[in-house]
Amino acid sequence: MNVNLSEFQYITSLLKRVLRGEKPEELPEGLTFEGIYKKSKFHHVSGMVFYGIEQLGSKPSDNILKIWRQDRDKAIARDLQQFHEYGVLEQTFNSNKIKYIPLKGIILKKLYPSPDMRYMCDIDVITEENSHHKLRDLMIQNGYEAEHFDAGNHDEYTKKPIMNVEIHRFLFSDYTFGGKHFAKYLKNPFDFSKQTEGFRCELDSTYFFLHLLTHAAKHYINGGVGLRAFMDIWLYYKNHNEKIDLDKIGNILKDNQYKKLCFDILLLSQMWFGDKEWDNSFDEMAEYVYKGGAFGTVKSSTHNEIREKGKAKYLLTKLFPSYRTLAFSYPIIKKIPVLYPFCLILRLFTKPIINFKRTMNKLKGLFSFKK
User: Fold this and answer.
1) What is the chain's alpha carbon radius of gyration, rounded to the nearest angstrom?
2) Residue 236 DSSP SS3
3) Could you give the 3-state DSSP secondary structure of residue 359?
Protein backbone atom coordinates (compact mmCIF):
# COMPACT_ATOMS: atom_id res chain seq x y z
CA MET A 1 0.00 0.00 0.00
CA ASN A 2 1.21 3.48 -0.87
CA VAL A 3 1.82 5.41 2.31
CA ASN A 4 1.13 9.09 2.81
CA LEU A 5 2.69 9.78 6.20
CA SER A 6 0.69 12.99 6.58
CA GLU A 7 -2.50 10.90 6.46
CA PHE A 8 -1.28 8.60 9.20
CA GLN A 9 -0.07 11.50 11.32
CA TYR A 10 -3.54 13.04 11.12
CA ILE A 11 -5.16 9.69 12.00
CA THR A 12 -2.86 9.40 15.02
CA SER A 13 -3.81 12.94 16.03
CA LEU A 14 -7.54 12.11 15.73
CA LEU A 15 -7.12 8.97 17.84
CA LYS A 16 -5.20 10.90 20.48
CA ARG A 17 -7.90 13.57 20.73
CA VAL A 18 -10.66 10.95 20.96
CA LEU A 19 -8.78 9.07 23.72
CA ARG A 20 -8.23 12.26 25.68
CA GLY A 21 -11.72 13.71 25.13
CA GLU A 22 -10.36 16.71 23.22
CA LYS A 23 -11.79 18.42 20.14
CA PRO A 24 -9.98 17.19 17.02
CA GLU A 25 -8.19 19.38 14.51
CA GLU A 26 -9.83 20.00 11.16
CA LEU A 27 -8.61 18.08 8.11
CA PRO A 28 -5.29 19.62 6.97
CA GLU A 29 -4.88 20.97 3.44
CA GLY A 30 -3.72 18.39 0.93
CA LEU A 31 -5.47 15.46 2.64
CA THR A 32 -8.79 13.87 1.71
CA PHE A 33 -11.43 12.20 3.87
CA GLU A 34 -11.39 9.24 1.48
CA GLY A 35 -7.66 8.76 2.11
CA ILE A 36 -8.11 9.08 5.89
CA TYR A 37 -10.94 6.54 5.82
CA LYS A 38 -8.96 3.98 3.79
CA LYS A 39 -5.87 4.23 5.98
CA SER A 40 -7.85 4.10 9.24
CA LYS A 41 -9.61 1.00 7.88
CA PHE A 42 -6.16 -0.45 7.08
CA HIS A 43 -5.34 -0.20 10.79
CA HIS A 44 -8.79 -1.40 11.97
CA VAL A 45 -9.49 1.91 13.72
CA SER A 46 -12.06 3.42 11.34
CA GLY A 47 -14.91 3.05 13.85
CA MET A 48 -12.93 4.87 16.53
CA VAL A 49 -11.70 7.56 14.11
CA PHE A 50 -15.36 8.30 13.24
CA TYR A 51 -15.87 9.61 16.78
CA GLY A 52 -13.41 12.35 15.86
CA ILE A 53 -14.72 12.90 12.34
CA GLU A 54 -18.28 13.57 13.53
CA GLN A 55 -16.98 16.44 15.68
CA LEU A 56 -15.40 18.29 12.75
CA GLY A 57 -16.88 21.43 11.27
CA SER A 58 -16.05 20.24 7.76
CA LYS A 59 -17.51 16.79 7.10
CA PRO A 60 -16.83 14.12 4.46
CA SER A 61 -19.24 13.60 1.56
CA ASP A 62 -22.55 11.96 2.44
CA ASN A 63 -21.44 8.66 0.88
CA ILE A 64 -18.17 8.40 2.83
CA LEU A 65 -19.86 9.63 6.01
CA LYS A 66 -22.51 6.92 5.68
CA ILE A 67 -19.93 4.14 5.21
CA TRP A 68 -17.84 5.50 8.08
CA ARG A 69 -20.86 5.66 10.41
CA GLN A 70 -21.71 2.07 9.49
CA ASP A 71 -18.21 1.00 10.60
CA ARG A 72 -18.79 2.66 13.97
CA ASP A 73 -22.27 1.14 14.32
CA LYS A 74 -20.99 -2.31 13.37
CA ALA A 75 -18.27 -1.91 16.00
CA ILE A 76 -20.93 -1.16 18.63
CA ALA A 77 -22.94 -4.25 17.61
CA ARG A 78 -19.80 -6.39 17.53
CA ASP A 79 -18.81 -5.18 20.98
CA LEU A 80 -22.22 -6.03 22.46
CA GLN A 81 -22.16 -9.53 20.98
CA GLN A 82 -18.60 -10.19 22.10
CA PHE A 83 -19.35 -9.17 25.68
CA HIS A 84 -22.46 -11.34 25.70
CA GLU A 85 -20.46 -14.33 24.46
CA TYR A 86 -17.70 -13.61 26.95
CA GLY A 87 -20.30 -13.80 29.72
CA VAL A 88 -21.35 -17.22 28.42
CA LEU A 89 -17.70 -18.31 28.37
CA GLU A 90 -17.21 -17.19 31.96
CA GLN A 91 -20.27 -19.16 33.05
CA THR A 92 -18.88 -22.21 31.24
CA PHE A 93 -15.48 -21.89 32.90
CA ASN A 94 -16.92 -21.30 36.37
CA SER A 95 -19.57 -24.02 36.28
CA ASN A 96 -16.93 -26.52 35.16
CA LYS A 97 -14.32 -25.32 37.68
CA ILE A 98 -11.78 -24.30 35.03
CA LYS A 99 -9.32 -21.57 36.01
CA TYR A 100 -8.88 -18.90 33.34
CA ILE A 101 -7.17 -15.57 32.74
CA PRO A 102 -8.74 -13.02 30.33
CA LEU A 103 -6.15 -11.47 28.04
CA LYS A 104 -5.68 -8.39 25.90
CA GLY A 105 -8.81 -6.85 24.35
CA ILE A 106 -11.46 -8.06 26.78
CA ILE A 107 -9.55 -6.27 29.58
CA LEU A 108 -8.33 -3.30 27.56
CA LYS A 109 -11.74 -2.37 26.12
CA LYS A 110 -12.77 -1.07 29.54
CA LEU A 111 -10.03 1.57 29.42
CA TYR A 112 -11.31 3.26 26.25
CA PRO A 113 -13.85 6.10 26.43
CA SER A 114 -16.32 3.65 24.86
CA PRO A 115 -15.53 -0.10 24.65
CA ASP A 116 -16.52 -0.37 20.98
CA MET A 117 -13.62 1.96 20.13
CA ARG A 118 -11.22 -0.91 20.74
CA TYR A 119 -11.79 -3.28 17.79
CA MET A 120 -11.34 -6.87 18.95
CA CYS A 121 -10.83 -9.64 16.41
CA ASP A 122 -11.26 -12.43 18.92
CA ILE A 123 -11.70 -13.15 22.61
CA ASP A 124 -8.44 -14.36 24.13
CA VAL A 125 -8.23 -16.33 27.36
CA ILE A 126 -5.67 -18.70 28.77
CA THR A 127 -6.74 -21.76 30.75
CA GLU A 128 -4.89 -24.53 32.52
CA GLU A 129 -3.36 -26.85 29.95
CA ASN A 130 -5.11 -30.00 31.14
CA SER A 131 -8.55 -28.43 30.49
CA HIS A 132 -8.39 -28.17 26.70
CA HIS A 133 -9.94 -31.47 25.69
CA LYS A 134 -12.80 -30.89 28.11
CA LEU A 135 -13.20 -27.35 26.78
CA ARG A 136 -13.44 -28.52 23.19
CA ASP A 137 -16.58 -30.48 24.04
CA LEU A 138 -18.01 -27.56 26.02
CA MET A 139 -17.33 -25.06 23.23
CA ILE A 140 -19.02 -27.30 20.67
CA GLN A 141 -22.01 -27.61 23.01
CA ASN A 142 -22.14 -23.80 23.06
CA GLY A 143 -22.43 -23.69 19.26
CA TYR A 144 -18.78 -23.19 18.31
CA GLU A 145 -16.74 -25.02 15.70
CA ALA A 146 -13.15 -26.02 16.46
CA GLU A 147 -11.12 -24.48 13.64
CA HIS A 148 -7.73 -25.49 15.06
CA PHE A 149 -7.20 -27.79 18.00
CA ASP A 150 -4.10 -29.08 19.76
CA ALA A 151 -1.78 -27.26 17.37
CA GLY A 152 0.33 -24.23 18.24
CA ASN A 153 -0.11 -22.29 21.45
CA HIS A 154 -3.90 -21.90 21.29
CA ASP A 155 -7.10 -23.54 20.08
CA GLU A 156 -9.34 -21.52 17.76
CA TYR A 157 -13.13 -21.60 17.87
CA THR A 158 -15.63 -19.80 15.65
CA LYS A 159 -19.37 -19.17 15.72
CA LYS A 160 -21.16 -17.40 12.90
CA PRO A 161 -21.50 -14.61 12.12
CA ILE A 162 -18.56 -12.91 13.89
CA MET A 163 -17.42 -14.80 16.98
CA ASN A 164 -13.81 -15.95 17.27
CA VAL A 165 -12.37 -17.31 20.50
CA GLU A 166 -8.75 -18.27 21.14
CA ILE A 167 -8.18 -20.48 24.17
CA HIS A 168 -4.47 -20.47 24.93
CA ARG A 169 -2.41 -23.21 26.49
CA PHE A 170 0.58 -20.87 26.65
CA LEU A 171 1.21 -17.32 25.49
CA PHE A 172 3.90 -17.76 22.83
CA SER A 173 4.92 -20.58 20.51
CA ASP A 174 8.60 -21.34 21.00
CA TYR A 175 8.99 -22.63 17.43
CA THR A 176 7.64 -19.62 15.48
CA PHE A 177 9.91 -16.82 14.31
CA GLY A 178 8.59 -14.02 16.50
CA GLY A 179 7.20 -16.06 19.38
CA LYS A 180 10.38 -18.00 20.11
CA HIS A 181 12.06 -14.85 21.42
CA PHE A 182 9.50 -14.48 24.22
CA ALA A 183 8.32 -18.03 24.90
CA LYS A 184 10.40 -18.44 28.06
CA TYR A 185 8.56 -15.58 29.79
CA LEU A 186 5.22 -16.19 31.52
CA LYS A 187 5.38 -19.91 30.73
CA ASN A 188 2.82 -20.45 33.46
CA PRO A 189 0.93 -17.15 33.80
CA PHE A 190 -1.11 -18.55 36.70
CA ASP A 191 2.07 -18.20 38.79
CA PHE A 192 1.79 -14.42 38.30
CA SER A 193 -1.94 -14.07 38.84
CA LYS A 194 -4.48 -14.11 41.63
CA GLN A 195 -7.93 -15.65 41.71
CA THR A 196 -10.53 -12.90 41.94
CA GLU A 197 -14.09 -14.12 41.40
CA GLY A 198 -15.16 -17.69 40.77
CA PHE A 199 -12.41 -19.35 38.77
CA ARG A 200 -11.36 -16.11 37.07
CA CYS A 201 -7.73 -15.09 37.64
CA GLU A 202 -6.06 -11.77 36.84
CA LEU A 203 -2.45 -11.26 35.91
CA ASP A 204 -0.39 -8.99 38.14
CA SER A 205 -0.22 -5.55 36.46
CA THR A 206 3.53 -5.75 35.83
CA TYR A 207 3.20 -9.13 34.11
CA PHE A 208 0.10 -8.09 32.15
CA PHE A 209 2.12 -5.13 30.87
CA LEU A 210 5.08 -7.40 30.15
CA HIS A 211 2.76 -9.49 27.98
CA LEU A 212 1.44 -6.38 26.19
CA LEU A 213 4.97 -5.22 25.34
CA THR A 214 6.30 -8.61 24.28
CA HIS A 215 3.15 -9.44 22.31
CA ALA A 216 3.45 -6.15 20.40
CA ALA A 217 7.17 -6.80 19.85
CA LYS A 218 6.39 -10.29 18.53
CA HIS A 219 4.04 -8.85 15.92
CA TYR A 220 6.51 -6.06 15.10
CA ILE A 221 9.18 -8.68 14.37
CA ASN A 222 6.71 -10.81 12.42
CA GLY A 223 5.99 -8.05 9.94
CA GLY A 224 4.27 -5.20 11.74
CA VAL A 225 1.93 -4.16 14.52
CA GLY A 226 -0.92 -1.67 14.20
CA LEU A 227 -1.91 1.50 16.01
CA ARG A 228 -4.30 -0.38 18.31
CA ALA A 229 -1.39 -2.02 20.14
CA PHE A 230 0.16 1.38 20.88
CA MET A 231 -3.14 2.77 22.17
CA ASP A 232 -3.53 -0.33 24.35
CA ILE A 233 -0.06 0.12 25.82
CA TRP A 234 -0.50 3.85 26.46
CA LEU A 235 -3.91 3.41 28.08
CA TYR A 236 -2.86 0.51 30.29
CA TYR A 237 0.29 2.29 31.45
CA LYS A 238 -1.63 5.53 32.02
CA ASN A 239 -4.18 3.71 34.22
CA HIS A 240 -1.85 1.29 36.02
CA ASN A 241 1.60 2.91 36.06
CA GLU A 242 1.73 2.94 39.87
CA LYS A 243 1.39 -0.86 39.86
CA ILE A 244 3.78 -1.50 36.96
CA ASP A 245 7.43 -2.12 37.80
CA LEU A 246 9.36 -1.20 34.66
CA ASP A 247 12.67 -2.03 36.35
CA LYS A 248 11.41 -5.57 36.95
CA ILE A 249 10.37 -5.86 33.31
CA GLY A 250 13.78 -4.60 32.25
CA ASN A 251 15.45 -7.15 34.49
CA ILE A 252 13.28 -9.98 33.11
CA LEU A 253 14.22 -8.97 29.56
CA LYS A 254 17.86 -8.17 30.35
CA ASP A 255 19.32 -10.86 28.07
CA ASN A 256 16.73 -10.53 25.31
CA GLN A 257 17.93 -9.05 22.02
CA TYR A 258 14.55 -7.31 21.66
CA LYS A 259 14.51 -5.64 25.07
CA LYS A 260 15.15 -2.24 23.47
CA LEU A 261 12.34 -2.80 20.97
CA CYS A 262 9.89 -3.49 23.81
CA PHE A 263 10.76 -0.24 25.55
CA ASP A 264 10.83 1.70 22.26
CA ILE A 265 7.26 0.51 21.67
CA LEU A 266 6.32 2.02 25.04
CA LEU A 267 8.09 5.28 24.18
CA LEU A 268 6.40 5.49 20.78
CA SER A 269 2.99 4.97 22.39
CA GLN A 270 3.72 7.85 24.78
CA MET A 271 4.83 10.13 21.94
CA TRP A 272 1.75 9.34 19.85
CA PHE A 273 -0.91 9.39 22.56
CA GLY A 274 0.67 10.93 25.65
CA ASP A 275 2.64 14.09 26.33
CA LYS A 276 6.15 12.88 25.50
CA GLU A 277 7.89 15.11 22.95
CA TRP A 278 8.54 13.57 19.53
CA ASP A 279 12.03 12.15 19.02
CA ASN A 280 13.07 12.21 15.35
CA SER A 281 15.05 9.01 15.82
CA PHE A 282 11.66 7.23 15.87
CA ASP A 283 10.68 8.39 12.37
CA GLU A 284 11.72 5.13 10.72
CA MET A 285 9.95 3.01 13.33
CA ALA A 286 6.77 5.07 12.94
CA GLU A 287 6.84 4.66 9.17
CA TYR A 288 7.25 0.88 9.58
CA VAL A 289 4.19 0.78 11.84
CA TYR A 290 2.16 2.94 9.46
CA LYS A 291 3.05 0.80 6.42
CA GLY A 292 2.23 -2.47 8.17
CA GLY A 293 -1.41 -1.80 8.94
CA ALA A 294 -3.25 -3.75 11.63
CA PHE A 295 -1.39 -7.03 11.10
CA GLY A 296 1.85 -6.22 9.30
CA THR A 297 2.99 -7.43 5.88
CA VAL A 298 4.43 -10.71 4.65
CA LYS A 299 7.24 -8.79 2.95
CA SER A 300 8.38 -7.17 6.21
CA SER A 301 8.13 -10.48 8.04
CA THR A 302 10.25 -12.17 5.38
CA HIS A 303 12.90 -9.44 5.49
CA ASN A 304 13.10 -9.56 9.29
CA GLU A 305 13.48 -13.33 9.30
CA ILE A 306 16.19 -13.24 6.62
CA ARG A 307 18.09 -10.57 8.57
CA GLU A 308 18.16 -12.86 11.57
CA LYS A 309 18.79 -16.20 9.84
CA GLY A 310 20.38 -15.39 6.49
CA LYS A 311 18.90 -16.40 3.13
CA ALA A 312 20.18 -19.98 3.11
CA LYS A 313 18.83 -20.86 6.55
CA TYR A 314 15.56 -19.04 5.80
CA LEU A 315 15.01 -21.16 2.69
CA LEU A 316 15.87 -24.38 4.53
CA THR A 317 13.42 -23.68 7.35
CA LYS A 318 10.64 -22.90 4.84
CA LEU A 319 11.27 -25.95 2.65
CA PHE A 320 11.97 -28.34 5.52
CA PRO A 321 10.17 -27.12 8.66
CA SER A 322 10.83 -28.81 11.97
CA TYR A 323 8.63 -31.59 13.30
CA ARG A 324 6.91 -29.19 15.75
CA THR A 325 6.29 -26.55 13.08
CA LEU A 326 4.85 -29.11 10.66
CA ALA A 327 2.62 -30.54 13.39
CA PHE A 328 0.75 -27.22 13.49
CA SER A 329 -0.60 -27.88 9.98
CA TYR A 330 -0.63 -31.67 10.23
CA PRO A 331 -1.55 -32.62 13.83
CA ILE A 332 -1.71 -36.29 12.81
CA ILE A 333 2.07 -36.56 13.02
CA LYS A 334 1.81 -36.05 16.79
CA LYS A 335 0.06 -39.42 16.95
CA ILE A 336 1.96 -41.05 14.09
CA PRO A 337 5.45 -39.44 13.92
CA VAL A 338 6.57 -41.68 11.03
CA LEU A 339 4.21 -39.68 8.78
CA TYR A 340 6.49 -36.62 9.09
CA PRO A 341 8.31 -37.15 5.75
CA PHE A 342 5.05 -37.87 3.91
CA CYS A 343 3.45 -34.70 5.32
CA LEU A 344 6.58 -32.78 4.37
CA ILE A 345 6.23 -33.88 0.73
CA LEU A 346 2.50 -33.20 0.77
CA ARG A 347 3.14 -29.70 2.10
CA LEU A 348 5.69 -28.93 -0.64
CA PHE A 349 3.06 -29.63 -3.29
CA THR A 350 -0.08 -28.24 -1.63
CA LYS A 351 1.02 -25.17 0.37
CA PRO A 352 2.00 -23.02 -2.65
CA ILE A 353 -1.44 -23.69 -4.13
CA ILE A 354 -3.55 -23.33 -0.97
CA ASN A 355 -1.65 -20.23 0.20
CA PHE A 356 -0.74 -18.95 -3.25
CA LYS A 357 -0.89 -15.22 -2.47
CA ARG A 358 1.11 -15.56 0.76
CA THR A 359 3.68 -17.79 -0.95
CA MET A 360 4.11 -15.23 -3.75
CA ASN A 361 4.53 -12.42 -1.23
CA LYS A 362 7.21 -14.42 0.58
CA LEU A 363 9.05 -14.99 -2.70
CA LYS A 364 8.82 -11.27 -3.49
CA GLY A 365 10.20 -10.53 -0.03
CA LEU A 366 13.01 -13.00 -0.57
CA PHE A 367 14.06 -11.58 -3.92
CA SER A 368 13.67 -7.94 -2.86
CA PHE A 369 15.74 -8.33 0.32
CA LYS A 370 18.78 -6.10 0.60
CA LYS A 371 21.21 -6.03 3.50
Assistant:
1) 21
2) helix
3) helix
